[in-house]
Amino acid sequence: MKDKKSAKLNLQHKQHQNGHLSPSTFAKLLDLEASWDKDQLGDVLHWIRQIVALICGLLWGAVPLVGGIWLVAFLLISSGIVYGYYAIILKVDEEEFGGHGSLLQEGLFASVTLFLLAWTLVYSLAHF
């Protein structure tokens, strides 16, 4: 009975943290000596990319910038920030986490969607 209750609490704890950064993850963001597991680092990279997507989308729409070159610019900026964070600031061994491709792909498709939504919405509301 005790084992079932403990397992249930563990499951609830994991479900609560699923999709959310735990307070201990926030403390590790700039700690160069912290150890990362694949899920934690993936979550952090995902949310960094979402923040960059929202900022760029709002900025691109307000300025107003149009054209595919700005989508490419967003992808380069976003990927550069993510790469800089895990390779230069944290200095993690990318092979432990599936290589550069895996780390750079974290949150990519969701961030493109958020970027396009914010860009289009702000541009449409501000300039028409």
From TrEMBL:
GO cellular component: endoplasmic reticulum membrane; mitochondrion
Pfam families cross-referenced by the UniProt entry: EMC6 (PF07019)
InterPro entries assigned to the protein according to its UniProt record, in alphabetical order: EMC6-like, RCAF1
The protein, known as: Rab5-interacting protein
Bias type Basic residues, positions: 7-17
Lineage: Eukaryota, Viridiplantae, Streptophyta, Embryophyta, Tracheophyta
Subcellular location: Endoplasmic reticulum membrane
Family (UniProt): Belongs to the EMC6 family.
Keywords: Endoplasmic reticulum, Membrane, Transmembrane, Transmembrane helix
GO BP field: mitochondrial respirasome assembly
Membrane topology label: Multi-pass membrane protein
Region (Disordered): 1-20
Parts of the chain that traverse the membrane: 69-88, 108-126
Protein's organism: Deinandra increscens subsp. villosa
Domain of life: Eukaryota
